[in-house]
Design brief:
Helix content is 34%, strand content 14%. With 301 residues, it is α/β, with parallel strands linked by helices.
């Protein structure tokens, strides 16, 4: 799921949005059940900040989730991969080239795969200046660093395990890090965490290891195949161009792994008209780089 933001235009729009929100809008102090809770008060689909507020800050960085928090968004999405020495890091691509200065720092190590670099080497990289000069010096966070910041911000997490076929055992390791960070207790599991993947095997493994966790499969299975997914997952999260109201209704007709109606969170929607279109299809959530645009489109706020 990749859309490179138009940084200059986005920055201008963000300034306008922050003005409307009073500069530092935050749900953090309000807590679950308040009017700032994404499932209370505003109505419409839940809005997920894709890789943080990634239209306005470098994706998957702490800056991006901090900005999502300031804009008033509880749910953030991220991507997890593993380094050469076995540390889980938050980055979308399996190469470091697009979103860091790895080609300058380590010029002789093409194709600059995440799995070929140690965590210490990755920690040296600038993961912000590719996006905008003001973010120079931003780093690729480890998953533990990321979880600590999400916890500090009182946010909730839609965690994607990327390319698990490259990283044997990453499902169990991800759960270990979540547990160490205090994210597998009853409260977090019930309200604050969803684990997703494009790999049905990965989702099935996570469900087997922690049957209490909410899980999601990324893709658009045929309607006839949906009952098979309902055995081990709770949500089907498709690309917005691949769905219809009838398909969404077919998902909602099923009961998922936890005995509840299955949900649909669609991605990546950054356009107001498309946001209203998928809302009217009946989706439960919208994953977006520009969460303020989508929130305004689907709720009027």
């Amino acid at each position: 799921m990749y859309v490179r933001p138009a940084a200059a235009a986005a920055a201008a729009f963000l300034g306008f949005t922050l003005t409307l929100l009073g500069g530092t809008a935050s749900y953090a102090a309000a807590g679950p059940g308040s009017s700032a809770d994404p499932r209370a008060g505003l109505g419409g689909p839940v809005v997920y900040a894709h890789r943080g507020a990634s239209a306005y800050a470098p994706e998957n960085t702490l800056d991006a989730i901090d900005l999502a928090m300031r804009l008033g968004f509880a749910w953030v999405e991220n991507d997890v991969q593993r380094t050469k020495d076995g540390v889980l890091v938050v980055i979308h691509d399996d190469t470091l080239a697009r979103t860091t200065d790895v080609e300058q720092v380590f010029p002789g190590r093409s194709p600059w795969k995440v799995k070929d670099f140690t965590a210490a080497e990755i920690a040296r990289l600038d993961a912000g200046s590719w996006f905008a000069e003001e973010y120079r010096g931003a780093r690729v966070p480890t998953l533990r660093q990321y979880m600590d910041r999400v916890q500090r911000n009182q946010q909730r997490l839609l965690l994607e395990i990327k390319k698990p076929e490259l990283y044997p055992g990453i499902e169990e390791q991800t759960l270990e890090v979540l547990d160490e960070a205090g994210w597998l207790d009853e409260r977090h599991v019930a309200q604050k965490l969803v684990v997703q993947s494009f790999s049905s095997d990965c989702v099935r493994i996570v469900h087997g290891l922690r049957p209490d966790l909410v899980t999601a499969f990324l893709g658009t299975p045929a309607v006839a195949d949906l009952p098979r997914y309902a055995e081990f997952t709770d949500r089907i999260n498709p690309w917005h161009t691949t769905i219809s109201a009838d398909w969404v209704a077919a998902v909602h007709d099923l009961v998922g792994a936890h005995g509840k109606v299955m949900e649909v969170d669609t991605w990546i929607v950054d356009d107001a008209a498309i946001a209203r279109k998928v809302r009217d299809m009946g989706v439960d959530g919208i994953i977006t780089n520009a969460p303020d645009v989508v929130r305004a489109a689907v709720t009027g706020f």
